Amino acid sequence: MKEELQKRIVKGPGGVDIEVEPLRDYYCEAPPTVMPAAYSKIVEDLFNWARSESIWILGFGTGCGAIEMRPLMTPRFDAYRYGIQWRPTPRQANLFVISGYLSVKTLKRAIRSYEQMQNPKYVVGLGSCTINGGMYWDSYNTIKRLDDYLPVDLYITGCMPRPEALLQGFMDLKKLIRAGNAEGANQYAENFKWYKDNQKKVIKDWDMPDYSW
Amino acid sequence: MAYSPDRSQYPQKKADGTLDIDLSSGKYLKLWQGPQHPGITGNMSIEITVCGDEVVEGITHVGYLHRGFEKLMERRSFIQCFPIVCRICVPEPDFNEYCYAAAVEELAGVEIPERAKWIRAMILEMGRINSYLMYLGGQAGALGQAVISQWATYVRDLMLDRFEELTGARIYHMFIMPGGVRDDLPIGFKKRMQDTLQEIEKTMQDIYSVMFCNAVFHKRTEGIGIIENRWLDRYGVTGPCIRAAGVPRDVRKDQPYLVYQHLDFDPVVGENSDIYTRADVRRRDLLLSVDLIRQILSRMPEANGSTMATIPNVLHWKIAPGETYVRGECSRGEYGYYLVTDGSGYPRRVNVRGPSYTHAMSLFERMVVNCNIADVAALLVSLHTYPPEIER
Amino acid sequence: MQALYDKLKQHYALGELSEQRADLCFFTVPREHLSSLLLYLRDVEGYTHLVLLTAVDWIEQNQFQLTYLVNNRLSANDIGIRVLIDRDVASMESIHHLWPTAATYQRELKEMFGIDFPGSPRIDEDFILEGWQDLPPYRRDFDTLKYSEQTYRDRPGRVTHDPASHMKQQLYPDAED
């Protein structure tokens, strides 16, 4: 565990001693749970419709595909007209676009960002390198299959995918959500141990809590 | 009014030169900016320790985008390296292609056709415009002017259309091959290029009046983030950052490559070396690139046969032992490839010298001290750093 | 370049000069002369810009070659100084007091090649990799393909061809070699 996560005593203003135990104070220890569908199908459909029309993307450019996000935000391609927008913090976002290759160091941050996002949440893998390693198939520092580590709802192929391909991908994701098939977050909760084992296999220095939200 | 921080509250230096920061004293606060943070260029992070809202220490952390290119290239043949080198730098990939191709050509003794040189120079200038437009959007965005980013990305898209027409791809062009360029200009390309340049110039005027004449932009950038003259060489400052400090250092002029000796231009220099000057130098450099493309288009020799020199069978291409370093002036500074061959069909060692390597690491860590938290993002953007070329 | 080389040769035990281009040359110096040579080049001859510092792994000779490339802005030429060090006890004098920015290069070399630079700031901190436990990855004896196959799972269906034999089969199946 990192030094910041150890139990320690901090001097507050005015000389008060404050005991801090980061793991208990800042993190929730409970593992994620499956979110059940609404009690009636018509309500669930309404929810899914609403979710599909407000896709808010986390502004975390994990790889080179992030450069095609800029054109999507600007007048030429303008993804805002489909209810898609970018948010600076995981707490406000519900779609995590893994924009390309993930090095092990970024994977660690990506997992944390993903876990901090609120349900319902979706993951889109972008580019060939998230699918099978792409160009970096023999690299010692990039993962090859994203779905081993995070539940991916949709892949967009290309190196890198054009903005039109991204828009098409978002449209497909909308269809998935409306049909109630974008169950990535629930999969993650169900197979939590499997995902964690995979993650810990590549992240050799696991120095954070198992679930951080 | 000049701002003079009160040094008395700052931490003392320990014997080994590091700062004596006791976090439990409650006086200092440690903040992480990045990797998931809107005020960060690309995917890197800064660990800053603040006292009040002033930074006492800043440490850059990189490595989030490391793919091990230099290792991967050692196990790819010379032609197999060519499609992956452009992935090292996203906003301006062409410099990787050019530097790699030029280094291979030099060691293999390949002379490329004259017209290919002109086309290469044009592509590099087009890439430079793209990169600067991206920068202008980011610099304005870091200070809250979102509209500049919209305009700049719009005209950048027009330039990407020209790239697409020429090379078939928007971002990664893979056009400058060892031996020349893949193809000649399409019919009517010059005319459409002129139109695009005109549109860019028009937008640049708007950007000038909205961004550079804006009182808030002036106030937040003038006199902030100054690179002192004595740091320039010690910290390996190159490109617009050194030109903004008044040193007319431009590889295109000092050690001309490709066709730059046939073009008329003077390096753009500034005086004050603050964030504003750096932004202004880049704006004027962008306009210079527009002018250079016009010169290249008008002076380019007529199409005359292939744009590729004859190169050996690439599947069995072996290059005699040797080492070389090839550099070019990219939008952020000096970009270079150090290539060592050992007589086999694979490079022995490739080292990429990206300008951000020195800017974002040692120089930024030096500059961020005494800066306010609110200015950190603007300062980082003003160095125009791009993490993939630091860690490759 | 030749004139400067002759002048330097009087004071330092320089290796053979190889002129790669009119504005770029390389030569070898013994490791104990490096620091004073760089200082001389920087302060007297005007080679003020440290372009790069990198290493080449000559595993066959059991040596690392360190390349210090310095640039003179006024006369617009570069000198590449090679230093050969032993691969087993890879350690070299730090030059961060000449160029503070060299500390970054040295951190990278420490991590990627395992070359130690005692006294260089933050030399032991992680630079690019995090929690790396294997051999330093840029060493020639580190096999990236093997590591990647062992660590990351492949998606079935990916095929790799040897380019030479595959192209021959596709394009000229009848031709001889």
Structural class of chain A: alpha/beta
Indicate how many domains the architecture of chain C comprises.
Answer: 1
Oligomer: heterotrimer
User: How would you sum up the global shape of chain A?
Assistant: globular
Main sheet properties of chain C: 5 strands, mixed
Under the CATH scheme, which class of the largest domain in chain A?
Answer: Alpha Beta
Poorly predicted residue ranges of chain A: none
Q: Tell me the total number of β-strands of chain C.
A: 5
| Largest interface (C-beta under 8 Å) | B-C, 43 and 41 residues
CATH-level-2 architecture of chain C:
2-Layer Sandwich
Arithmetic mean pLDDT of chain C: 85
Strand content of chain A: 5-15%
Task: Measure the end-to-end span of chain C.
Answer: 45 Å
Order of helices and strands of chain C: HEEHEEEHHH
Task: Trace the largest sheet of chain C across and list its strands.
Answer: 1-2-5-4-3
**Number of structurally distinct domains of chain A:** 2
- What is the SS-derived class of chain C? alpha+beta
Low-pLDDT residue intervals, each spanning 5 or more residues of chain C:
none
> What is the molecular shape of chain C?
globular
Task: Summarize this entry quickly.
Chain A has 213 residues and is an alpha/beta fold. Chain A has helices spanning 22-25, 41-52, 69-73, 104-116, 128-131, 163-178, 184-190, 192-202; strands spanning 8-11, 17-20, 55-58, 84-87, 95-99, 122-126, 154-156. In chain B, 44% of the residues lie in helices and 12% in strands.
Report on the structure:
The complex is a heterotrimer of chains A (213), B (392) and C (177). Chain A is an alpha/beta fold. In chain A, helix 2 runs antiparallel to helix 6. By secondary structure, chain B is an alpha+beta fold. Chain B has one domain: Cytochrome-c3 Hydrogenase, chain B. In chain B, helix 4 runs antiparallel to helix 5 and helix 4 runs antiparallel to helix 13. Chain B is globular and about 70 Å long. Chain C has a five-stranded mixed sheet with strand order 1-2-5-4-3, covered by helices on one side. Chain C has five helices and five strands. Chain C has one domain: NADH:ubiquinone oxidoreductase Nqo5 subunit (Beta Polymerase, domain 2, 2-Layer Sandwich). In chain C, strand 3 and strand 4 form a beta hairpin. Chains in contact: A-B, A-C, B-C. At the B-C interface, helix 1, strand 6, strand 7, strand 8 and helix 12 of B face strand 3 and helix 5 of C.
